[in-house]
Amino acid sequence: MQVSSVATQMASVKLTARPVVADQAQVQNGHGETATAATTPSPDVEPEIVDPFCNADNPQIITFQDVTSAAFKIRKGVELTPCVKSHFSDLIDMDIYLKKEFLQFTGSFKERGARYALLMLSDEQKRTGVISASLGNHAQGLSYHGWKLGIPVTVVMPLKASLMKIQKCRNYHANVVVQGVDMGEAKRIALKMGHDRGLTYINGYDHPHIMSGQGTIGLEIVEQVSDIDAVVVPVGGGGLIAGVATAIKNLSPNTKIIGVESEKCPSFTRALENKGPIFVANQATLADGLAVPQVGYNAYATTVPLLDKMIVVKEEWIALAILRLVEQEKCVVEGAGAAGLAAIMAGHLDEFLGKRVVLLICGGNIDTTMFGKCLERGMAAEGRLQRFTVTVSDGPGGVAKLCNLLASLGVSIKDIMHERAFIRDIHHVEVKVICETRDWEHSKEMRKVLQETYSKVHFYDMPMAIAE
């Protein structure tokens, strides 16, 4: 695979229309879907606008020199985030370090690539401004550094983007357009707007300068921690792992590069199976920052030769990892940032037990409502949040007896509901309870007492994180 340097490429190119290819029965659109193409252009159909830096037929592979150039350019504009030994090292037989990128000003690693891409624009492009599509973190990084550098920024964010992230972009004086059901549609809208208004489009995960900027994290990790056995990187569009892998494999060739995706958006895993980026229909996920329907062409081509393993984790493990990071590390992180720890907790990295592993905590921009849901799902996953149905007497004190029993066990009732209409025995009532316990052992004690006290008790599914 030929390596081409993007340092000599122009910073960004005005968008161009895709030419219509005569006598072609099928073409592939920007999402990897195949569609029938007319042999002659229709006057009523606008040509698709494409990003010249993201070409499936000619992917650009960044080099170590590109990453070091980015590090020099952005060194005064972004934080040198700490990479510290984790408390989890005492709980898991693994020497774990956390690279805390959520401590950047906008709460995400995305600042690095955004600043570098903006600095590499021509004077004319800086005057005209830039546009991009983003779920939030890239939009914030671009908006903030565009504001600081005096470059006009427009961001297109899909309808499912976090309200908090949308408002933050507006606080950074960006022109925010909320359109599109997902990232794919938001990107098409942004490309069209950029073409019509003469704005420079900057892809948040596949632009070579974006990937080079993200790679500066890898340089810092190797400086901050010695003898690293593996680095675990969250994967969405692939720009982060492309940059980090480029840096680390050049400085520490024996260090393993591990990617982690959510089961709801396994775009890179599908790309590996397909031997190239392919469109994947994403579902709603706790790790919304990873919900990219198609891996970038440049990111894929750069990463594949350097990648040692790609992992897909269940949503419950991500929720539990968010909870663990709050309780053990006092860190509030988003789902994408917790993906690495989720992979360890789920047992996907047992080959690194007793070894030194760095987890890239890539972001901390989690919506407050989502944060509460994640904590509850995490508690349910490890058996601390219990749900059961029990039939009790409908006479005076029947429900009170149940509540007193739970209180005597030290169990906290979170929600309780009575059901009379659909129970056959008119002298009894069905009570549905959601309660919180100290841990799984406490939950088992509660279950045992309830089964001994009541003849009809139904407990719901076993906690996902409990192996018995």
From TrEMBL:
Residues 25-46 are annotated as: Disordered. It comes from the Eukaryota. Its cofactor is pyridoxal 5'-phosphate. Keywords: Lyase, Pyridoxal phosphate. Residues 75-363 form the Tryptophan synthase beta chain-like PALP domain. One of its GO terms (molecular function) is L-serine ammonia-lyase activity. PANTHER family: ACT DOMAIN-CONTAINING PROTEIN, THREONINE DEHYDRATASE, MITOCHONDRIAL-RELATED. Belongs to the serine/threonine dehydratase family. This is L-serine deaminase. The lineage of its organism: Eukaryota, Metazoa, Ecdysozoa, Arthropoda, Hexapoda.
